[in-house]
Amino acid sequence: MFVEPSPNTNKSSDKKGQIEVICGSMFSGKTEELIRRLNRARIARLKVEIFKPSIDKRYHEHDVVSHNENSIRSTPVQFAGDILLLAGDCDVVGIDEAQFFDLDLINVVQKLANQGKRVILAGLDMDFEGKPFEPMPQLMAMAEYVTKVHAICMKCGSLAAFSLRLSSSMDKVVLGEKEAYEARCRKCFLEDKK
Ligand SMILES: Nc1ncnc2c1ncn2[C@@H]1O[C@H](COP(=O)(O)OP(=O)(O)O)[C@@H](O)[C@H]1O
Ligand SMILES: Cc1cn([C@H]2C[C@H](O)[C@@H](COP(=O)(O)O)O2)c(=O)[nH]c1=O
Ligand SMILES: [Zn+2]
Question: Which residues are the active-site ones (predicted)?
Answer without folding.
Answer: 97
